[in-house]
Amino acid sequence: MNRPMLGIFDSGIGGLTVVKELLKRHSGASFVYLGDTARTPYGNKSPDTIIEYALEDAAFLVTKGATVIVIACNTASSYAADVLRATYPDIPVFDVIQPAVDAAAAMPEQCIGIIGTKATIASGVYETRLRAANPDLRAVSAACPLFVPLVEEGWTDRPETETIARVYLAPLLEKSIESLILGCTHYPLLFKVIRKVVGDGVSILDSPSALLDHMERELSIPEGGEQNMYFTDNNEYARYFRDWFGRPFVARRADIDSRDRGV
Amino acid sequence: MNRPMLGIFDSGIGGLTVVKELLKRHSGASFVYLGDTARTPYGNKSPDTIIEYALEDAAFLVTKGATVIVIACNTASSYAADVLRATYPDIPVFDVIQPAVDAAAAMPEQCIGIIGTKATIASGVYETRLRAANPDLRAVSAACPLFVPLVEEGWTDRPETETIARVYLAPLLEKSIESLILGCTHYPLLFKVIRKVVGDGVSILDSPSALLDHMERELSIPEGGEQNMYFTDNNEYARYFRDWFGRPFVARRADIDSRDRGV
Q1: How many domains does chain B fold into?
Q2: Which end of chain A, C or N, has fewer beta carbons within 10 A?
Q3: Complex confidence, ipTM
């Protein structure tokens, strides 16, 4: 058995919200992160393509020594979690959906809103699992496809973003939701805008903290090893790292993409 | 020599504006189109990645019989046109930038605005070529990274889109631009909104029509052969085809992505 190490992946930078929550709780956590920035975003792609990319991402992390896989992306979690579990029967695979579902289902009888990418919402995975956890729950969902580009554009705190959030969230507010699941790891970065739009009466459940609660119950978070960040594109992410984590990381280039395939 | 056929590619669906202009002028044009929807968008990716993808896209078109390559994507044109010309010395390679530059440079002395993706604007290719064509031209540019997701979301005619367009275009209007180059093949779909924001006094130059003018001068458009549409993701694009072209096309899956690479 290798020295234990978390392998965390996302379609891009959204999964860094999971890394942030991890480091907040375990600053010495051993992990390798992969952001598939060369093919981001996943949220408007097809199930087949999402599964293919998730398999490649996980394979990369395993070659880097990951002994636990964390799918820090709701879109990949929606379509690829079971495929990854079947592919790696000896490796624990955590997805970001079940922990949020469990947290929501544990609350008193209520109406739950879910927001996510087009692919996540189209999968219906949250509604299905919420109903399985508690048939009395009512759930209503909305795809918010512009939220990821708004976050990646750095427009997290702008009036235009609030205007768009009001458009997306209106149908949920009409249903008088009592809690809201942020079903995309980018969305915690829009927390302030979303809170303003839904008001203080709605509980907001975000995937990274629900995931970390769940992981802490299920395993002992490995510490004391390496902390590495890989991205499939060679953009400069260092500027995020210092802002987000209060300390620098090196962004390494992960060469998982096809370079020598025969067309 | 194969029977002549145009090979047209884009990061996704934006290049269909070039196909539309082509079919408006030559309804029987022989062409094969590739939209790299599995890896879209290109506009926020790095030069290395953009070049790598453009090479793969062109290679696919050549295996399908293309005898002319048309880069129907400003981002790929900005970084990969010269690489493609060097890779395929016997195949004419058209990019979408030079025709728009030539059209703008032919107008009376003026101040020209350019809008495009983050990568296109960062390349400075329009300013460089405009200065080369006419040192008296003044040019000012702005990246509009949310325009592509807005188009792909179908928000081409919404007040939120107009609000965002006002934010992006304000610095150009402050410089009193007399014409505006739409430096992205998605942007003609935002024509109405852009026209409203810049007013009737600004000439709008779009790449697809400048490109077709240029191609018609340079070669005889091949007609009478096949018309094929390929996409690297297997999403359903048929809904666009009937709206855009007034007739259906079959969207075929192009398997150019890495499936059997060793990680």
Answers
A1: 2
A2: N
A3: 0.89
